[in-house]
Amino acid sequence: MLDIRRISTSRWWHKQKSWIFFGIFLFLVFVRISKGSFYKDFYYFISKPFWPGQFQKEVILKSIDQESLIKLNLLKKDNIRLREILSLQESSNIDRISAAVISRKTGGWWRQLILNKGSKDGVEIGSTVIGPGGLLGRVKNTSMFTSSVTLITSPESKLGVWVDRIQISGLMVGLGDDYPSLIIYSKDADIKVGDFVSSSPASTLLPPNIPIGIVQSVEDPFRAKKKAKISLFAQPHVIDWVQILKSKN
Amino acid sequence: MNKFFIKKLPLIFFIFVPILFLWHPNWLGFLGVQPYWPLLWLLPWSMINGSINGLIFGLFLGLILDSLTLDSNFTQIPGLILCGFLFGRIKVHDHILVGHFRYGLICAFGSALCGTLYFFQILLKNFSDSTFTLFIPSVQNILAEVFLTGFFAPLVCSQLLKIFKIFK
């Protein structure tokens, strides 16, 4: 009888190559857990020569005019209301950090911006990001030199908003296209096309009265839950400079 | 030094995949969607180095790309692993013209697979909400991505395949 015997004692764990692959795998798991901060910082340095300059004047000025007008009206109203109720004379001194957009994904599955200011510059997770026109999103993740912003069009974004004309709060949900959906949990809400939507005064995530957009169309007007499509003021696919408002603590 | 770089050329291209993914050049896009860049590298790599290599590097690519996106609930790993494995089973075709068009078709198929797997994850996560509103933009994303990936694949993959073959 032939005795079947293993001639080679080589196993996969005896090979140096397997351990190299395992090492790379562990490193990449670390990269994954740290949300790629190494990679983003590396990208920060190599993309530095290509950062946006100060152009797009027309688009930005138009959006700024629109934003300022609406914001002014809202602030006036808010101020009068607050002074009447509480006699408050507080001015809103929110710290702002200007940042350039160094990477943007405004279409497809991933809707996010990467900005050239990070934890080194004092950007915190949860800070609100605004651009010419109004609200863009919130900072979800920071590395030393960069911060990543989830846009309000992202399916991950859910925010409380305020419809000024009918004085009602609603929930704005990103759908993965350019028009987020506004959900109002009230049968009697008289929401109409053209209604102006801003951040909710009751929101704990955002500062109040940041312009967001205008109701573009209303769906299912006969149901208990009303839905509307919102056309946004801020255009993330053309904006090169944004402002980060430090989160409220 | 020079020899080292030439030998590691496929891996240098590998590093460029996440950079392209971050760069997101709008002028190469369609409806705001980009070609699915990782597949354009994964196809030639897997065809030359086989299924197991394709699977491993699919996993590596997935880990890196997941770390660059903010959606912590969804992952690209299953799609890329599956594509890496499947691409490894494809042999290089002798006929140049057939080969070129084949890359387009294969990458378009791979992109549809990855897109659908990603969409299913979103669908499962948002199952309680109204799913129909998510459906239209997602299908549009998948179709645009399939078209673009299929469009760029013959151009990019055949060049990469040539380079990888020379420096293997």
Which properties best describe this structure?
heterodimer; A: 249 residues; alpha+beta; Thrombin, subunit H; 2 domains; six-stranded antiparallel β-barrel; 12 strands; 29% strand; elongated; B: 168 residues; mainly alpha; Arp2/3 complex 21 kDa subunit ARPC3; 7 helices; 0% strand; globular
Terminal Cα separation of chain B, in Å? Answer: 17 Å
Strand portion of chain A: 25-35%
Number of strands of chain A: 12
- Helix-strand sequence of chain B: HHHHHHH
CATH architecture of chain B: Orthogonal Bundle
Largest protein interface, residues of each chain: A-B, 40 and 38 residues
CATH topology assignment of the largest domain in chain A: Thrombin, subunit H
Unreliable stretches covering 5 or more consecutive residues of chain A: none
Number of helices of chain B: 7
CATH topology of chain B: Arp2/3 complex 21 kDa subunit ARPC3
Strand order of the largest sheet of chain A: 1-2-5-4-3-12
The CATH class of chain B: Mainly Alpha
Question: In total, how many domains does the architecture of chain B comprise?
Answer: 1
The overall pLDDT of chain B, averaged over residues, is 83
Structural class of chain B: mainly alpha
Overall helicity of chain A: 10-25%
Secondary structure tally: strands of chain B: 0
CATH homology superfamily of the largest domain in chain A: Rod shape-determining protein MreC, domain 1
Tell me what the structure shows.
The complex is a heterodimer of chains A (249) and B (168). Chain A has 249 residues and is an alpha+beta fold. Chain A is built from three helices and twelve strands; from the N terminus they run αααββββββββββββ. Chain A has helices at 16-33, 37-46, 57-86; strands at residues 96-105, 112-115, 128-131, 134-142, 147-151, 158-163, 168-173, 181-184, 196-199, 211-219, 226-232, 241-245. In chain A, the strands form two sheets. Chain A has a six-stranded antiparallel β-barrel. In chain A, strands 6-7-8-11-10-9 form a six-stranded antiparallel barrel. The mean pLDDT of chain B is 83. Chain B has helices spanning 2-7, 9-23, 37-49, 51-68, 77-88, 96-125, 132-166. By secondary structure, chain B is mainly alpha-helical. Chain B has one domain: Orthogonal Bundle (Arp2/3 complex 21 kDa subunit ARPC3), CATH 1.10.1760. The chains are: A alpha+beta (249), B mainly alpha (168). The interface between A and B is large, with 40 and 38 residues.
